[in-house]
Amino acid sequence: MFIIYFPVFSNNRAYMSLLPLVPSLKPFLEDYLPRPGSNKPFVTLTYAQSLDSRIAAKPGEQTKISHLETKTMTHYIRSKHDGIMVGIGTVLADDPKLNCRFEADDGHISTPRPVILDPTGKWVYNKSQLRSVCDDNKGLAPFILIDDTVTPSNEDIEVIEKQGGAFVKLPLLSSSNRIDNWKVILAKLFELGIKSIMIEGGASIINDLLIYNEVVDSLIITIGPVFLGKDGVEVSPSKHADLIDIKWWQGIQDSVLCARLT
Ligand SMILES: NC(=O)C1=CN([C@@H]2O[C@H](COP(=O)(O)OP(=O)(O)OC[C@H]3O[C@@H](n4cnc5c(N)ncnc54)[C@H](O)[C@@H]3O)[C@@H](O)[C@H]2O)C=CC1
Ligand SMILES: Nc1nc(O)c(N)c(N[C@@H]2O[C@H](COP(=O)(O)O)[C@@H](O)[C@H]2O)n1
C-alpha cells in the first residue's frame, strides 16, 4: 500500500500531515494521561530513545528515533496537555515547532503552550522556527522561563508579547540544586493556568526528573530499534530508579513503555 503525505506550505515552511493514530494507542495511553484535581500541574515525562538509551546521535544534533506511527502518538499526547516543555539545550539543537498536528475526530486541534527552560537567556526567539510557527497561527507563543537576573532583548520581548507569550522570571540560578527549581517552576506554571505539562527533554532534564518521583506523574518512553552508539546523548539517571504500573505497546517498528516512578 502506498501512503502519500501532503505537505501544507505556508510562508515557505512545510507542515506535514501525520499518519492516523493507531486505534489501540488510545486505550493503552488512557491511564497515563492528565487527570484533573491536583494543586500542581500533572507532569508527563515523555521521550524517544534508542536501544542503548540515547536520545540523540550526538550532542547538539536532532535525531529521528520515532516511527511515523509513534510520532502521531506524540502529537496525540501533546493534544492532551496544556503545556509542552523542553530545555534550552533541546531548543538550540532541534529548533523545534512544539505545536500539535493531531486532529481530534471533530477536526479540532488542541495545541499546548510551549514552555522553554532557558535560565541564562541564551535563546534568540526572533530567529527561531517557533516564532514562524506562531506567525503562521500553527501554534502558541512560548512562555520562556529565565532567571530573575536576565534581561531579554527588546526585540524578543516585543514579538513574544504581541504573539501572546511571555518571558517569565524565576529564581532559577540562585538555588544550589537544580532539582529544587522544579517546585518553583511548576507552582508558577500552575498559576499561569497550565494544569498539565508534557516534558519532552532533553537529556539533562530527563536525567534529573527520572529520580524525582514527586514531580513526575507519568512516564511514556518510545523505544526505537536502533543503537546510536557511545557518542550519543545518553539518558541514565544518577541513581537507581524503579518503575511501577508498567504497560507495553508494540507497533510496526517501535515499542512504547508507560509507567510511573516509585
Ligand atoms: N529523542 C527525544 O525524545 C528527545 C531528544 N532530545 C535531544 O536532547 C538533546 C538536548 O539535551 P541537553 O543538552 O541535555 O539539553 P536540555 O534540553 O535538557 O537543556 C538543558 C538546559 O536546561 C536548563 N535546565 C535544565 N534543568 C533545569 C533546572 N531544573 N533548573 C534550571 N534550568 C534547568 C539548563 O540551562 C540546562 O543547561 C538534543 O540533542 C535533543 O535533540 C530532546 C528532547 C527529546
Ligand atoms: N517523540 C520524539 N521522537 C523523536 O525521534 C524525537 N527526535 C523527538 N524529539 C522531540 O520532538 C521535538 C521536535 O518536535 P517538533 O516536531 O519540531 O514539534 C524535539 O525538540 C524533541 O523534544 N521526539
From TrEMBL:
<comment type="function">
    <text>Catalyzes an early step in riboflavin biosynthesis, the NADPH-dependent reduction of the ribose side chain of 2,5-diamino-6-ribosylamino-4(3H)-pyrimidinone 5'-phosphate, yielding 2,5-diamino-6-ribitylamino-4(3H)-pyrimidinone 5'-phosphate.</text>
</comment>
<keyword id="KW-0686">Riboflavin biosynthesis</keyword>
<dbReference type="Pfam" id="PF01872">
    <property type="entry name" value="RibD_C"/>
</dbReference>
<protein>
    <recommendedName>
        <fullName>2,5-diamino-6-ribosylamino-4(3H)-pyrimidinone 5'-phosphate reductase</fullName>
        <ecNumber>1.1.1.302</ecNumber>
    </recommendedName>
</protein>
<dbReference type="InterPro" id="IPR024072">
    <property type="entry name" value="DHFR-like_dom_sf"/>
</dbReference>
<comment type="pathway">
    <text>Cofactor biosynthesis; riboflavin biosynthesis.</text>
</comment>
<feature type="domain" description="Bacterial bifunctional deaminase-reductase C-terminal">
    <location>
        <begin position="41"/>
        <end position="235"/>
    </location>
</feature>
<comment type="similarity">
    <text>Belongs to the HTP reductase family.</text>
</comment>
<keyword id="KW-0521">NADP</keyword>
<dbReference type="GO" id="GO:0050661">
    <property type="term" value="F:NADP binding"/>
</dbReference>
<dbReference type="InterPro" id="IPR011549">
    <property type="entry name" value="RibD_C"/>
</dbReference>
<dbReference type="GO" id="GO:0009231">
    <property type="term" value="P:riboflavin biosynthetic process"/>
</dbReference>
<dbReference type="InterPro" id="IPR050765">
    <property type="entry name" value="Riboflavin_Biosynth_HTPR"/>
</dbReference>
<dbReference type="InterPro" id="IPR002734">
    <property type="entry name" value="RibDG_C"/>
</dbReference>
<dbReference type="GO" id="GO:0008703">
    <property type="term" value="F:5-amino-6-(5-phosphoribosylamino)uracil reductase activity"/>
</dbReference>
<keyword id="KW-0560">Oxidoreductase</keyword>
